Fold this protein.
Amino acid sequence: MTARQQARVLIFDADDTLWENNVVFERVIDDFLEWLDHPTLERAEIRVILDDIERANAVAHGYGSKVFLRSLAECLERLRERPATDSERKEIDRLSVALIEHRVELMPGVADALDELAGRYDLLLLTKGDQAEQQRKLDACGLLHHFRAAHIVAEKNVETYRWLVREHGFDPSGAWMIGNSPKSDILPARAAGLNAVFIPNENTWVLEDDELDPTDAGVLRLAAFRDLLRHF
């Protein structure tokens, strides 16, 4: 039986699956490292430090622009071994204006594919992050009419997917989680008994990376969002 014949429910990630997101953060990081201009450390070395700070802050404070700005300030303070000055914090805020002003730009083929898929399947949206920030993007994306429900959660782990199954009362074996993150979209969904579609994004946040089992028949790997229409 094919994926299309088995499927009843399609669940979609949002950031970096329906629209570009992390590439904007990466541009801010590039500008931050250039402004920082550390006298002894290479950019790659500083990036390792920043990644460690972001990892800790994600656990303690969650996700989103506010946590990201906090991580940049902490990185600066660790490297300069002193508290950030008011002018330095203002400069970090200035560098990060792009995050606040960034418009939601859909991935190629997303709108047309969802138009077709919504006529054949029950569609849900599952995204994690800051409630207000994610809601702003959902309100601006112009896609919500395709989904029976859209959920913003603090974390996407196995328990989140089990909750989603209970909340909507579907059979996990007939559901597919579609996203770009091995850590948040694919592995926990599979552990909860769902199938998954992995659509890589070259700009995926490094902290969302993880190893996937290449022999797992429950994971469909696609090159682009529009390729969903060849399988569902």
Q: What stands out?
A: The longest strand covers residues 122-128. The chain is about 45% helix and 10% strand. The CA atoms of residues 176 and 195 lie 5 Å apart. The radius of gyration is 19 Å.
